[in-house]
Amino acid sequence: MIENSVVVIGSTTIDKIIHHDLSRFKIGGVTTYAGMTYSRHGIATKVVTNVANRDREIIKRLQAEQIIVCNGQTPGTTHFINYMNGGNRRQKVPRRAALIKRSQIIENIKGEGMVHLGPLHPSDIDIHAIKLLNSFKLFIILDAQGLVRSVKNKSVYPLASKQLPAFFGISQVVKANAQEYESIIDFFQMDSLELLRQFEINEFIVTAGHRGGFVQTIDGEKIPYPAYRVKSEQDPTGAGDVFFAAYVIKRFLNRRPVADACRYAAKLAARQIEGNYIKTEDVCLADHKEHAY
Questions:
Q1: pLDDT band for position 289 (cuts 50, 70, 90)
Q2: Count of domains observed in the chain
Q3: Is the pLDDT of residue 20 over 90?
Q4: Strand locations in the chain, DSSP E?
Q5: Domain-embedded: residue 285
Q6: Is position 292 within any domain?
Q7: Which terminus of the chain has a lower count of CB atoms within 10 Å, N or C?
Q8: What does the pLDDT read at residue 83?
Q9: Would you say residue 101 lies in a domain?
Q10: HEC assignment per residue over 129-176
């Protein structure tokens, strides 16, 4: 039985979005977009993250969404620069927060039912904590995006992390976009069904933007889903996180079939892209000033 509560673990970020010649600062990360989605569906939501003292406005924004923030010590908050060009994105990471430590994680998952792992890069979450999570008998879902990227000279490059087996070994549900999925398949040298059976993962969700995507289940089904029509694209930031959280809510908390969960998640992701779900004013940091990196 999955409890109606979730702990989202990963960096909460300050994102500089450069899109259509416009630039703005927003709160970002899986903790923000997935966390807000869970909370807005009436699910008791906690995030475990590291935000610097000077950026406590971020914490206040999350708390305003009825999210409990378990914040650790860090000299700086993770910063991403996202250069958006249509469906393409180029990223830089001028600053990374301190590692989310084992002690932070263990003390904040006791008594919880579900954990949503959202690392944004391979050194985001303490690998020693990951190896301990199996003993807590939690329902664990993983957004694999941060485990198929590398940060070198503050730029982001696609690269599968050697930590993938440890994270996959504790996860019941995994999500990746199409490019990330190909990196994962290449890393393990096995197809999606073999991968699920090797690690006893129940479902693997693969998203492909306007092309829709598919869900591979451990019993051999591969269920495609279409994208929901986007009326006007504003900013796609966070759409994947919204999709995954919405899917988990419908599929595992509301116990709906895969196709129903995909339909609902795709609709909410489209609303996010249109700017009608988690709106700019919900996450915009209008007064943020860039610090020297």
A1: low
A2: 1
A3: no
A4: 5-9, 13-19, 22-28, 44-50, 67-72, 78-85, 88-95, 114-117, 139-143, 149-152, 155-158, 173-177, 203-207, 213-217, 222-225
A5: no
A6: no
A7: N
A8: 84
A9: yes
A10: HHHHHHHHCCEEEEEHHHHCEEEECCEEEECCCCCHHHHHCCCCEEEE
In a 3-state reduction of DSSP, which class is residue 91? strand
Lowest mean pLDDT, pick from 107-111, 186-190, 195-199, 258-262 = 107-111
Contact of 249 with 241, CB cutoff 8 Å: no
* pLDDT surpassing 90 at residue 23: no
Q: Is residue 293 part of a domain?
A: no
pTM of the model: 0.94
Are residues 259 and 225 in contact, defined by beta-carbon separation less than 8 angstroms?
yes
Report CA-CA distances (Å) from 57 to 7, 54, 77, 89, 240.
21, 8, 12, 26, 24
Q: Are strands 213-217 and 203-207 parallel, antiparallel or unpaired?
A: antiparallel
pLDDT at 91 (0 to 100): 87
Q: How confident is the model at residue 134 (pLDDT cuts 50, 70, 90)?
A: confident
What's the chain's average pLDDT?
Answer: 93
CA 200 from chain centre, in angstroms, equals 21
| pLDDT at 293 exceeding the cut of 90 | no
Query: What number of residues does the chain have?
Result: 293
Is 117 within 8 Å of 60 (Cβ atoms)? no
Torsion of CA 73, 76, 81, 87, to 10 degrees: 0
For 180, the domain range is 5-280
